[in-house]
Amino acid sequence: MHRSWWMENxxxxxxxxxxxxxxxxxxxHRYITVSGCLLEYQYIEVAHxxxxxxxxxVGFIYACYVVKCITEEEDSFDFIGGxxxxxxxxxxxxxxxxxxxxxxxx
Length: 106
Prior knowledge:
Blueprint: H1 5-9, E1 14-17, E2 32-35, H2 41-72
Antiparallel strand pairs: 1-2
C-alpha cells in the first residue's frame, strides 16, 4: 500500500489502471500496475533524498563561512568620531564630591 510519486511518474514508467479494484484496496486509492520503468522508484527516491542532503550540507557549510566572514570584519570606522585612530572615548565624569579619608577616633 506504499504510494510513491516516483512509482507512477518515474522515467519510462507506464501506468495502467486495473478495474475492478480488489475488495481489499481502499476506496480513495486507485489500483494500478506500473511497467516499463528505467529505474525502480526506490532507487530514484534514494538518489533524490541524497541530493537533498548534499545540498543542505553545502548550504550549511556556506552559511557558516558567511557568518565567519561577517564576524571577522574589522570595524575600523568609528561612526561617532569619524576616522579617529584612537577610537571613541566618551566624556570623562567629573565628580563634584571630593572623597576624603575618614578617621575614626576611639
